[in-house]
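Practice problem: predict the structure.
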Amino acid sequence: MIAIISSTTDDKYLFSLPITAYCWAKLGVDTIIFMPMGPLTDKSKLVLETLTELKIKGVARSYILFFNCPKHKEPTYSQCVRLFGGCLDFIDGDEILITSDADMAIFSKDLTEVDHNIHIWGNDLVPQGQFPICFCSMSAAKWKEVFNCGNKSFQEMLDEDLGPLDSEHMRSDFWARDQELLHNAIMGTHYYIPHPRAYPNTQFASRRLDRDDGMWETMLKPDTIDCHLWRPGYEPENFSKIMRVLRYFYPQEDFSWLVNYRQQYDSIV
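Answer:
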């Protein structure tokens, strides 16, 4: 299995990438990270260096791919590019790809021990007409089929869908574009297996540590699936909560690399 995530240079997402890659790796899952093409900031360089160090040490394996787009469209392109992992011809068609968020830490093999069918986790967490991008899994061949990729690259797929769209408030006006595209591509033509997660009458997911839940520590249990990380993650209070979660699940791990990474990130103006 390979997890497909993405990030812009926004601190709220960028900082979390090594943490997210680390958590997926603990479940035996590699990550492909999509980012916008352009000059690297000092923070971006630090993130890429940290991911490289984790790979060298055998802690986590991540692969960085870049897409092109106008600056004001970066968030929308970043969200939607995760849908086009099936376009990557270096991935075997039988490989299972799962879409996720840059700020979502994963702890349960429930997500990884699935077949090649389409699996939608938390289908009841989003409005009608959407499927959650976090999480959807299926084989790479199935992703290619569902989105009619043919021989097109992920860049071509992005440009075809998002190129004609424009708005002064691109990010907010098309915030759910990825989840709408996912829903429309699957519904009516493809069989999928739903995995409902919503607590009754809420949009809180069961077995999730949610940053918006003031009682999150009471939900810290061995069967936790995921954690919506606090952000920006490098701020002292948020980082303390993140470390509390990681040390709960991996009490024997040495997280000095993460403490050092956080200190370096926070020192960059």
